[in-house]
TrEMBL record:
It comes from the Bacteria. The keyword Hydrolase applies. The keyword ATP-binding applies. Signal peptide: none annotated. This is ABC transport system ATP-binding protein fused with dipeptidyl-peptidase. Keywords: ATP-binding, Hydrolase, Membrane, Nucleotide-binding, Transmembrane, Transmembrane helix, Transport. Residues 223-274 are annotated as: Disordered.
Length: 944
């Protein structure tokens, strides 16, 4: 494993550990009816389970088993069990084998292990007089989150004594959850968030690594709070104050009645080995995935055997499926598949999507109450029938103490279960075929999510959705026009893509891996990746035309916003091919099909105690509004008299700590069509000035205006500047043209605005632009870099040392490139130390020394400081005589065909006119000194 991968895994582990320590499924139990608890050890085949029974005030009563999530223990769900007991149920919690103080090895809910354990626990409930029965059959329900949700489904499929179930934020097929493939050529089901669920997917290494580490015996994951990192924090539960050291020691709060056998350590009775607490089968499967990134058929079969998909075809008990909308581990597609399969088997299904999940928080009190209502009706016939409606939450912007201010949409049923397909609205996208590259080793990789990050701090799932990074050259984008009205996406959108090989480029043996995502693009161009969700896909043969299921989300796309579909070649959370490759991606259909589920709306009002949080958020909103107003004022700071002037710098200064002034009172102006050279010795302040011009650093004093707009970091007017900094980093195995197109695609701007042909023509690349960059000379690479800076034909080019490393013929060619670009009416600013080349390429020059301006003007005027001029003529003697008659002209000297004179303030044009009027043929006229001479005089060693 590389250092980068180790750092990434460490970060993900740290995120989950922090979340685990901070976010618990607990309830103090201090309020409400009295609950009595009883701890026992229950022996099963291959394990001894640490259990707690919660008895309500009145019995007999139906029982509800409450399963914990992966890495947790019975203490993780103490609060949920107490709530159910206070509602009048007998509740039973237990630490699954391999966790907490239970023994045995983790088999990931295998039928002959964890599923058989649940049946054994039901046997025990059937013996209890406190549990209501129909004859010998106990009335039993089961619920749990994530890993506990999966055991709820699996147990219901194997044991018909379970009468009702409520699985929460769990998976349908663990293989498709951890090795997803969202591309297919087959028709898709008509449900809102159906996924392709194709074979040979992409390994979700970050989440898988986190959970494998949790089962390796790391005590930090085996404490009561660990699985709480999955569902996240409750909206109104208390935070745990448990000592992390005690948690790490496996202190589960005291030994259960009967205790553990002597010498038996918490969390397992086997010594630690390379498989930790896992069975050898599970360890081998993970090792295969972690080392190869691929799953053999035996691994696929194993994961399916421990997944609910193996039994959903025989679940007919009433099932309330609760899934989170902020969940990069088990997305909405997993609950979608479970709902379809149970409904097809004849089961009664209610589906709820809420505004939380593994990245967004656990169900709040209201939703937990709905789960209790489900059991109330289906276990003892109390209350009204919860029915088979479909509810989903639309999250608003206001949060109070971590609780999202949401509205709930309720539809009569989950679309696709009753023979009716989900309504899908086409949104037209625009964009050409684009080339994308998978870099060697898949590094650097794009970033979309970090396991559990969203559950650590309230609101951070939203922040994370704004921090997605798509690496340049690795992404293709297509955008819609601004929407005319709000569009509420309710599920997984679909799009058809065409992926083709580039002639001569090899296709990786493992196939092409891509990651599709849907962005919400605001009017100012900022992108939000809803739920930080991404759809991986693997295509084994090219060319291919596939239907891609985008991530299941709930997102209102507001009017004036755009939908953007992006396809990348890398993602830090997944295992990607290590072979470098390049291929093209295009739209096979120019519309993305967006699912829409109409329904009735109801608002969720935050509780009274949350008002303090609301006021805090309002205060933050006011601060944000003030900042936005300041930014708008800065953005609107335009000098209308300068809107046609490329650049005006006034009294610019930059002082660093310690009193170092890199730039001091710099002022100059650049007009259209000029090629201006910025000259000065090392330390003169040239680079600092350019960095301020590009908005990279802020000046201490003064201002910079580009076309009248004041420059600041991120100023929109910066898009009118094209820049080239030495070392462009082109991909050598691609052609020059492909590199240019990749760069432009990374900007996210429309392809038709790039002006590829014009930039290539001005740069003089010719047919060489179709050759691979590795065949280019240094001069060709420099010209390609200039062409890249010219893309979009910016109104001003800023070039840093464009002739570095070039030989004389290449320098001459570069000089012509700059002149041709300025001839289009645009402006070029060149920073260079080659004075002779600046003299020949530039029309104007600014000379800096020790941060100050020492000279500015036309090159010829700067070079002619002191008035010395040279005329090449056919009659030197006659020319000397004519010049001698002009007032103020002195020091006339004849040197062959050249006549030198000190004009001493007399305009050179006047001297030239006198020579022509006298019949002297003038072949050349110019300053006698070179720019280099003037430069040395201006900034020489003796200059202060």
């Amino acid at each position: 494993m590389s250092k980068t991968q180790l750092r990434w895994l460490a970060l993900t582990l740290a995120a989950v550990i922090v979340a685990a320590g901070a976010l618990l499924w607990v309830n103090s139990g201090s309020d409400g009816p009295r609950v009595v608890t009883e701890d026992r050890v229950v022996a099963t085949g291959g394990a001894q389970l640490d259990t707690t029974l919660y008895l309500p005030e009145q019995t007999p009563a139906p029982a509800v088993l409450v399963a914990h999530g992966f890495g947790g223990s019975k203490e993780s769900v103490d609060g949920d069990a107490r709530e159910l007991a206070q509602r009048g149920f007998v509740a039973l919690t237990w630490s699954a084998r391999g966790f907490g103080r239970s023994t045995g090895r983790i088999a990931l809910n295998a039928p002959d292990a964890e599923v058989a354990d649940v049946s054994r626990l039901i046997d025990e409930l059937a013996k209890r007089p406190e549990v209501q029965k129909d004859g010998d059959d106990p009335k039993v329900g089961i619920t749990g989150g994530s890993y506990g949700g999966a055991i709820s489904l699996l147990a219901a499929g194997y044991d018909k004594r379970i009468d009702a179930l409520a699985p929460v934020i769990t998976y349908n097929d663990l293989g498709q959850a951890l090795i997803p493939n969202s591309a297919t050529t087959e028709p898709l089901p008509g449900s809102p968030s159906a996924n392709a669920f194709a074979a040979q997917g992409v390994f979700k290494r970050s989440w898988a690594g986190v959970f494998f580490a949790a089962g390796m015996g790391g005590a930090g994951f085996a404490n009561p709070s660990a699985e709480a990192a999955e569902p996240g924090s409750d909206n109104d539960d208390q935070l745990d104050s448990q000592d992390p050291a005690a948690a790490a020691a496996g202190d589960g709060g005291g030994a259960p009645q009967g205790g553990l056998p002597p010498g038996r350590s918490p969390g397992g009775d086997q010594g630690m080995g390379p498989c930790g607490r896992f069975t050898e089968q599970i360890c081998a499967a993970y090792t295969e995935l972690a080392t190869t990134g691929r799953a053999s058929q035996s691994t696929v079969d194993l994961l399916r055997s421990v997944s609910p998909v193996s039994v959903t075809g025989r679940i007919t008990q009433p099932t309330m499926i609760v899934q989170g909308e902020q969940d990069t581990l088990f997305g909405l597609d997993q609950s979608d598949a479970t709902a379809r399969q149970i409904a097809a088997a004849g089961g009664k299904v209610k589906v709820v999507w809420y505004s939380g999940g593994h990245d967004g928080g656990r169900p709040g009190a209201s939703l937990r109450s709905q789960i209790a209502d489900w059991f109330d009706f289906h276990l003892r016939g109390r209350g009204s029938d919860p029915g088979t409606s479909f509810e989903y939450a639309v999250q608003g912007a206001l949060r109070a103490q971590g609780a999202p201010n949401v509205r709930t949409i309720t539809a009569p049923s989950y679309p696709g279960l009753n023979g009716t397909a989900t309504e899908r609205r086409p949104v037209t996208l625009a964009g050409p075929q684009q080339t994308v590259v998978n870099p060697p080793g898949g590094n650097p990789g794009s970033i979309t999510s970090m396991p559990g990050l969203g559950s650590v701090v309230a609101g951070s799932s939203r922040l994370a959705s704004r921090l997605a990074v798509d690496m340049p050259g690795q992404v293709a984008r297509w955008r819609s026009e601004p929407l005319t009205s709000q569009l509420l996406i309710s599920g997984a959108s679909t799009i058809r893509l065409r992926v083709e090989p580039i002639p001569g480029q090899p296709v990786p043996e493992d196939g092409v891996v891509l990651f599709a995502k849907l962005y919400d693009v605001s009017g100012d161009g900022s992108r939000t990746l809803p739920a930080s969700a991404v759809s991986p896909l693997r295509i084994t043969q090219l060319p291919a035309e596939v239907t891609v299921t985008l991530p299941g989300i709930v997102r209102p796309i507001e009017a004036e916003h755009r939908i953007e579909v992006a396809v990348t070649t890398t993602d830090q959370a997944y295992a990607v091919p290590s072979q470098p490759a390049a291929f093209t991606v295009s739209l096979a259909d120019n519309a993305v099909q967006v699912p829409v589920v109409p329904g009735t709306r109801s608002a969720q009002t935050p509780p009274m105690f949350a008002l303090i949080g609301i006021f805090a958020v309002i205060g933050l909103a006011i601060v944000a509004a003030v900042i936005a107003a300041i930014r708008r004022r800065r953005a609107d700071d335009v000098d209308e008299s300068l809107v046609d002037v490329p650049l005006v710098i006034e009294n610019l200064a930059k002082e660093y700590p310690g009193g170092l002034k890199a730039v001091d009172g710099l002022s100059f102006r650049v007009e259209k069509g000029q090629v201006l050279g910025l000259l000065g010795p090392n330390g003169a302040g040239k680079t600092t000035s350019l960095r301020m011009l590009m908005g990279l650093i802020q000046p201490t004093e003064g201002s910079i205006r580009v076309f009248g707009h004041k420059i600041y970091s991120g100023a929109p007017v910066l898009s009118r500047i094209g820049s080239f900094v030495e070392g462009s980093g082109f991909l050598p195995h691609l052609s020059g043209e492909a590199n240019l197109r990749l760069y432009w695609a990374a900007t996210g701007r429309p392809a038709e605005h790039a002006h590829f042909e014009e930039a290539i023509e001005i740069a003089g690349l010719g047919h060489a632009v179709r050759r691979k960059v590795r065949t280019y000379s240094q001069g060709m690479r420099q010209r390609l870099a200039i062409a890249q800076a010219m893309l979009g034909l910016p109104d001003m080019l800023v070039l840093d040392e464009p002739t570095n490393g070039l030989d004389p013929p290449q320098i001459h060619q570069m000089r012509e490139v700059l002149k041709r670009y300025a001839a289009t009416g645009r402006t070029v600013l060149v920073s260079s130390h080659l004075l002779a080349e600046v003299e020949q390429a530039c029309t104007h020059v600014v000379v800096m020394h020790r941060g100050k301006l020492v000279a500015a003007g036309e090159v010829a005027d700067i070079a002619a400081v002191g008035g010395e001029a040279t005329f090449r003529v056919d009659e030197p003697d006659q020319a000397a005589s004519v010049l001698g008659e002009l007032s103020g002209v002195t020091d006339i000297e004849i040197d062959g065909k050249q006549v030198h004179a000190n004009l001493d303030g007399t305009p050179r044009s006047k001297a030239l006119g006198a020579l022509v009027a006298a019949g002297v043929a003038v072949e050349q006229a110019g300053p006698r000194r070179r720019l280099e001479d003037a430069f040395l005089e201006l900034v020489g060693e003796n200059k202060a």
